[in-house]
Sequence to fold (153 residues):
Amino acid sequence: MESIPILKMGNFLLVTIQVDMHDHLAMMLQDDLTNRIAQTHAHGVLIDISALDIVDSFIARVLANIARMSRVMDAQTVVVGMQPAVAITLVELGLSLTGICTALNVEKGMALLRLPPARQGRTLPTGGTLSSLDETTNQVAATKWSADDDAED
Fold:
């Protein structure tokens, strides 16, 4: 029977989806992941979906459920590697991944998981999330611009 491997890296679990997700496999991942969070006391879950060309409404709902279940179990979830076509489809279908932090790649996702929980993500009025990592980067860039402007005076 097909399953998706869940790797433990320190206090985090890493899930790399390398096969086409069908409904049964998504439900198995949800069950397996919640069980692994309980067994390992993981504080974060990183789900890499870069190999997925299609995310339908059911898979999007399962990802949102995984994030909510993880949060109840004291683990933050970050989804990384979303293909542009997947993002466009989700928006066109009116599906929001409410409660799910996203990052462009595994490196940025791991950095986001390492932030203190209060800084990991902020929900926007639109229902999406703004990565605190990006917010911090923007604040640092704005401070640098301000310092450069002051230096020219």
In short: The radius of gyration is 17 Å. The longest strand covers residues 12-16.
